[in-house]
Amino acid sequence: MEFNVKKLASDAGVFFSRAMQFTEEKLGQAEKTELDAHFENLLARADCTKNWTEKILRQTEVLLQPNPSARVEEFLYEKLDRKVPSRVTNGELLAQYMTEAANDFGPGTPYGKTLIKVGETQRRLGAAEREFIRSASINFLTPLRNFLEGDWRTISKERRILQNRRLDLDACKARLKKAKAAEAKAALWNDEVEKAEHELRLTQTEFDRQAEVTRLLLEGISSTHVNHLRCLHEFVESQTNYYAQCYQFMLDLQKQLGRFSGTFVGNAESASPAAATSPPAAAATLPAVPTIPVVPTIVGVPNTVAEGVLNPNEVKPPASGTRRARVLYDYEAADSTELALLADEMITVYSLPGMDPDWLIGERGNQKGKVPVTYLELLS
Would you say 23 and 198 are in contact if contact means Cβ atoms under 8 Å apart? Predict the structure, then answer.
């Protein structure tokens, strides 16, 4: 009991001495031991690393999970050392809704078929997103978080110890200075001077030892930068793979929809007369061609315009209204009425009255056929 009382009294005295020294330094009434320039640079670089690591970590978490409630939930699970439950991505949820809608509308209808195709692509996008989040969390977020919760806490702890050692050292210097001043006035040997000098030697040794420990930890920030650089490369690789997968999924979907869009739109127009009154989308980009008069149907003679049958060899380009277009992607013709395309080639395109707005007539030399608008970049 007596030992504990003495220890508490000693700790209180040390705390009071440090508080007095710190206050006098702030008021400019006491001298302060300055660290060398290299040490100060190490401290500044460590603080900069910590601040930017925190910002990058927080913003990456927002990028991977925009929902703040979900982020809080994941944080609580991590603190409780429990596995974060699997969460359905937005793409997967959208895929589920589209599939259920297709079943209600009829999976055999054009709209139902398209919903199923788009829903499947959304499911694949959602799965790719899930894998990207998992990879980025392991390879990028976890190392950054480990630095802040591990190495940085150790550095902060040793810096606080170094600060206390410095305050003790400067307090001893102040006491020695006062003891020598009192000795000079008394003109005799003062035991306080010897005691103060002994305390100064001890505190100087402890300060130098702690400064070396802290210096080694601060110099380890260079290794932290190297490790974070490697993690950053892995993050970029994961993100590149994710976006490449998304691009390929959407490109495949676009090809599927472009190949069958003529059939779907045609059926939709027959089921909904109001759709026929809306102006074609291509009218905004291609000049209209003079209207072809409707030829009455004669018994036994097929009316190709009325029946929607297009023979490219019988189509003649209009006198005006043709445009040049650059092909964006390869396209494989589904039948003899379509024109196969190669990426980056140049073709001539034009529209005809009554055509599906998602298609144009394309010409390349002596070859001619329908081409999907989504595969083209129309040039002025």
Answer: no
CA–CA gap between residue 218 and residue 322 (Å, rounded): 69
* Range of lowest pLDDT (7-16, 47-56, 359-368): 7-16
Q: Cβ-count burial of 318 within 10 angstroms (0-12 exposed, 13-18 middle, 19+ buried)?
A: middle
3-state secondary structure of 301: strand
What residues pair up with 338 in beta bridges, in sequence order? 370
Distance, CA of 215 to CA of 219 (rounded, Å): 6
| DSSP state for residue 308 in the 8-state scheme | T
> What length is written for the chain?
380
* DSSP strand pairing (346-350 vs 367-372): unpaired
CB-based contact 347:272 (threshold 8 Å): no
Secondary structure of 149-204 in HEC code, one letter for each residue: HHHHHHHHHHHHHHHHHHHHHHHHHHHHHHHHHHHHHHCCCCHHHHHHHHHHHHHH
Distance between CA 216 and CA 187 in Å, rounded? 46
Closest CA to 373 of 256, 248, 282: 282
Query: Residue 322, Cβ neighbours under 10 Å: how many?
Result: 17
Residues with Cβ within 8 Å of 49's Cβ and at least 6 positions away in sequence, in order, are 221, 224, 225
Residue-wise pLDDT for 206-224, tens only, equals 999 999 999 999 999 999 9
Tokens of 286: 């291609």
Q: Other CB atoms closer than 10 Å to residue 173's CB: what's the count?
A: 20
Band of the pLDDT at 24, cuts 50, 70, 90?
A: confident
